[in-house]
Design a protein that fits this description.
Helices cover 36% and strands 18% of the residues. With 385 residues, the protein is an alpha+beta fold. It is globular, with a radius of gyration of 21 Å.
Amino acid sequence: MKTGPREIITPFRPIPLEVPEGMKPNEFFNSTENLQDLSQNNGLLSNPEHLLMYRKALGHSNEFDTSIIFNSSKCILNPLGRPVRRTQLPEQTKTVWNRMNQIMIEYMLEKYPDPADALVLAGEASLDATWPLTAPGVPSIRMLHNHFIVFNMEQLRNAEMADPKNPNLTDGGQNNLFQAHMRTVYRTFFETLDLKILKPVQGSDSQIQLTGYPQGLPSWEIQGGVGMLKSTHFWMEYDLILKGFLDFYRTFFTQVSTRNAPIHKDPFFPQQIEETLLFNNDFLASAKKVRDMCIHDAKYANAIRWQPAFKQLIYRNDQGKLIVTISQNSIGNAITELLGVVVRRVPDANAYEQTEPALIEKLLEVRQRLINADLGDAIKTQYWD
């Protein structure tokens, strides 16, 4: 079978919401009003830590698809002041967040034990307002959330091939920038992190054979498998991967912005930055290349994300091993596209309703596990008790 990214069609029930005049859809869909509607119509569970589990009304997959969002829209009204990554969460909230993640991933792997039948993934997204200031939606799209998704492999095998030049699949050139010009220093920097549970893997060891993705991203195997998700040490290492990425990204674009700039404020690994990055010719030469392009190409400069935006993923590979990867994406590509799955959503209430009962049954089942673990209280909607 030919290897390459796949594009699947996912039907959804049209959302009965009217976007207020003068607002862009992406502004409204991240507003407090819409989040309240999300909770009332699609909310599954909430807890005192402001973590909200909900059914994805515009889902990626109708096999299994849910999200947990850190809903700070009412307790932090300034959109630019809201936490957007796990390193910014209060410690107690992060502990609850990690326990919820562990239970969700364990449930998906239990329900779908064979990697030949199901592609299982859980991905965290940072929705920083880091694209050009003139772009619509910048003030509002700022909310930390995790996706929990299962794709039917038979559907993926029968799906049409996606366009490999799709900018979301190519990471908008950002992936090429890091991997083509700074591959060695990028991996060397990550190797300085103190990882015991996460083991670096490359190439086919991390890729989904059907799609050939992820491509060019640093990846790590979770030694010990799903059982390690119950260990606080794993989640500490999961945080180290994110902190390392943030330091690398910030250091690079600080140098792009200002030649020979000092280390950015509040680094996680200042010694590694100084020794591994700021004394590396390839790293600084790449920064100069981007800086020169910004000076001479206004369109290119306007597309730069000066602050880090990332997607961090736990997924199961073809051999049944759990893999962690992180994307230095410069554009708003979907979490699924890191694994070569492009989702085309189409409004089709009848088609969606055929899959809805089985989907809701699984969502309510995993919700009960969270309730039993004292991780929240059930939310009643018109679709479930």
